[in-house]
Design goal:
By secondary structure, this protein is α+β, with helices and mostly antiparallel strands. 24% of the residues lie in helices and 28% in strands. Strands 9, 10, 11, 12, 13, 14, 15, 16 and 17 form a nine-stranded antiparallel β-sheet that branches. It has a four-stranded parallel β-sheet with strand order 3-2-1-4, sandwiched between helices. β1, α1 and β2 form a beta-alpha-beta unit. α1 packs across α9. The longest helix is centred in the last third of the chain and has 15 residues. It is globular. The two termini are 36 Å apart. The mean pLDDT is 96. The structure holds adenosine monophosphate (AMP).
């Protein structure tokens, strides 16, 4: 067990790190944020900040010397330089990062556990593109294997001819058939150092332009009917990795059962509602898990709606604050670019 007063290292400096640091502070921990970007909204609420490149092993090693445990708030942290950090400090295991950073590895990992991803084809060279699309069928989505998030690095195709007009990067790609889903949902679990697994209720998620717009609990009945199978898969994934902390699986509820979309080896946007909407929130339970503390109760406290606040939201703030059921979270980002996650609001009723 890592005693309170110790320092938790967080790799990544965004809003997930900010909310992790706030939960850690409640339990008496200090946080040290490591991020290559100098304007870190996580560092603003943390005791210490290292601003250095992901590949700077000297800085990573110095950072690790200050920490009792090191975790991630960003899943695209380059894995090789993490060798500069003693392996027993890292939680969850970097293997989870390695898998989640590559859409094809992630799908194969899930298939090996008996899960079902969307039909897909891995594409290593341009000349394979047309064939992969024809084999898998249209409509579909072409995605970069690595570094995509919030709908970035994705191209929707309705016919194989469209690929000729696309400017896709010269990197590994994956083509996925479009899943005709009834709804989207996520399984959010926390796994402790002793292997105990707890689930939060699964939210139903609505995306807009590839970005999460809203999560609500309880989810619709078609999701409820697929939960057991989805949870079983998520628990198998966590066990297979010897995972410690919060793990999220995003899934589609289809007429043929749950279809795996992607895995996030970290706290997740669709779990933000748990801060006020569950006895113990995802951020606190992640801290509890990585510090070897008893896990908190994940029971839901009411009907929940979490809405992301994107872009310029200043005009909405007062109205949200006047709503007695609303909990407003603003991340303190300086620049409100279109589609950028600036905060979220959770309503518990
Ligand atoms: P991703 O970044 O892969 O999670 O994609 C973001 C969102 O795009 C998902 O939550 C879905 O709403 C949609 N999407 C991605 N892949 C597919 C797919 N194969 N079939 C249908 N919708 C998809």
């Amino acid at each position: 067990m890592i005693p309170s007063g110790s320092t938790i290292g967080i790799l990544g400096g965004g809003q997930l790190g900010r909310m992790l640091a706030m939960a850690a502070a409640q339990l008496g921990y200090k946080c040290h944020v490591y991020s290559p970007e100098k304007d870190s909204i996580a560092a603003e609420v943390s005791a210490r900040f290292t601003c250095a490149d992901w590949h700077d092993r000297t800085s990573l090693a110095a950072f690790a010397r200050d920490c009792a445990v090191v975790t991630y708030e960003f899943e695209n942290v380059p894995v090789a330089p993490l060798a500069a950090i003693p392996a027993d400090l890292l939680a969850p295991t970097p293997r989870a990062l390695e898998i989640a950073q590559d859409r094809v590895r992630e799908k194969r990992f899930i298939e090996d556990l008996g899960g079902r991803p969307a039909p897909y084809a891995a594409i290593d060279a341009d000349k394979e593109l047309q064939g992969a699309i024809e084999r898998t069928g249209t409509p579909g989505i072409l995605k970069t294997r690595r570094d995509g998030y919030d709908g970035k690095g994705q191209w929707r195709l309705t016919s194989a001819h469209e690929v000729a007009g696309l400017r896709v990067p010269n990197a590994g790609l994956v083509y996925e058939g479009l899943v005709r889903f009834e709804a989207e949902f996520s399984v959010i679990l926390v796994r402790g150092r002793d292997g105990e697994v707890r689930f939060w209720d699964s939210p139903e998620n609505v995306h807009d332009g590839g970005i999460l717009a809203r999560s609500s609990v309880p989810a619709s009945p078609q999701i409820a009917a697929q939960l057991m199978q989805a949870r079983e898969l998520a628990a198998k994934a966590a066990d297979a990795l010897g995972y410690v902390g919060v793990l999220t699986l995003e899934l589609f509820a289809t007429a043929e059962g749950p279809v795996f979309n992607e895995m996030a080896p970290r706290v997740h946007n669709s779990g933000h509602w748990t801060i006020e909407g569950a006895v113990t929130g995802q951020f606190e339970n992640h801290v509890r898990a990585i510090c070897g503390l008893p896990l908190g109760d994940t029971t839901t406290l009411g009907r929940i709606e979490m809405v992301n606040l994107l872009g310029d939201v200043a005009a909405q703030e007062v109205a949200i604050l006047k709503d007695p059921h609303a909990h407003l979270h603003l991340y303190g980002k300086a620049e409100a670019r279109e589609g950028r996650k600036m905060g979220h609001v959770t309503r518990v009723s």
